[in-house]
Inverse folding.
């Protein structure tokens, strides 16, 4: 009985040690006496106790490796690039992925360093920012080709961060700020120029309209004076006296307008009883003299014209 129990116990232990489970998206590597025997997929699996053992497990999930690479650009600026590589093990190449590489992360990192330090030194710093997609594609292309022999497939390579030296970043910010201030100054200058031009146009239009108004006003005044002279001539007053009378009338109208405004300056005029009569006589005399001078000039011109003939 004891022997039977012992036998049963041994069988149970052997069966228990021979059963094992494999998680989803995982492959178990089975070795027999140190030699690869088989690979087992997800689920409950059985191996020969003592003889077989689970040498390791390989994940088939997409994995990500982040690598920070320091390198120098073409314009001698040191920059740190953060590269994120997404990869997975090909299900039909589990043997290669498990046995050919001692440390796959270090191998991938070495390839990333090699590609980045071959591509970035060809570019200036500004191009590194603008062409980061090209850098990522170069990493993915070269890394994919190199890792296929080891059972790895590169899904995507991304340049997730570009970090220049702190002094370089400060200088770049200053350049950017200066450029923006220059553009702002240009826009302000354009706005001021447009404002000045529009103001000048408005002022020119105002002057034009003002001149037209003054011309119309003088035309109407001249027409009114002409009508006044005609009326006075009909009353028996000659043209000189009529002109003098009109001037005197305008003179007193002007004084009346000045007196109507409390802020007008004081004007002192002759105040003796004969002042108005004297002013009228002086104006008539001046007009008569002017007419005589005009007539004399006309006569001289006529004589000169005949003499030349």
């Amino acid at each position: 009985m004891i022997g039977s129990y012992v036998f049963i116990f041994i069988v149970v232990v052997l069966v228990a040690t021979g059963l094992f489970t494999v998680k989803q998206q995982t492959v178990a590597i089975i070795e027999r006496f140190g030699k690869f025997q088989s690979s087992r997929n997800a689920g409950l699996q059985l191996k020969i106790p003592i003889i077989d053992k689970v040498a390791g497990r390989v994940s088939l999930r997409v994995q990500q490796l982040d690598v920070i690479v320091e390198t120098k650009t073409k314009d001698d600026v040191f920059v740190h690039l953060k590269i994120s590589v997404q990869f997975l093990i090909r299900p039909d190449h589990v043997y290669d992925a498990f046995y050919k590489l001692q440390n796959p992360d270090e191998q991938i990192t070495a390839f990333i360093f090699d590609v980045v330090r071959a591509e970035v030194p060809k570019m200036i710093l500004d191009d590194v920012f603008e062409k980061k997609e090209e850098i990522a594609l170069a990493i993915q292309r070269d890394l994919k080709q190199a890792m296929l022999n080891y059972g790895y497939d590169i899904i995507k390579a991304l340049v997730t961060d570009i970090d220049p030296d702190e002094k370089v970043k400060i200088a770049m910010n200053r350049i950017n700020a200066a450029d923006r201030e220059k553009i702002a100054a240009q826009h302000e200058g354009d706005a001021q120029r447009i404002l000045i031009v529009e103001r000048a146009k408005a002022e020119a239009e105002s002057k034009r309209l003002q001149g037209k108004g003054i011309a119309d006003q003088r035309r109407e005044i001249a027409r009114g004076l002409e009508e006044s002279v005609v009326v006075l001539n009909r009353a028996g007053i000659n043209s000189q006296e009529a002109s003098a009378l009109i001037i005197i009338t305008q003179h007193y109208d002007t004084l009346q307008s000045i007196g109507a405004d409390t802020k007008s300056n004081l004007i002192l005029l002759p105040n003796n009883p004969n002042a108005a009569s004297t002013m009228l006589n002086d104006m008539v005399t001046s007009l008569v003299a002017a007419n005589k001078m005009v007539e004399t000039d006309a006569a001289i011109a006529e004589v000169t014209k005949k003499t030349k003939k």
Notes: The radius of gyration is 55 Å. DSSP finds eight helices and eight strands in the chain.
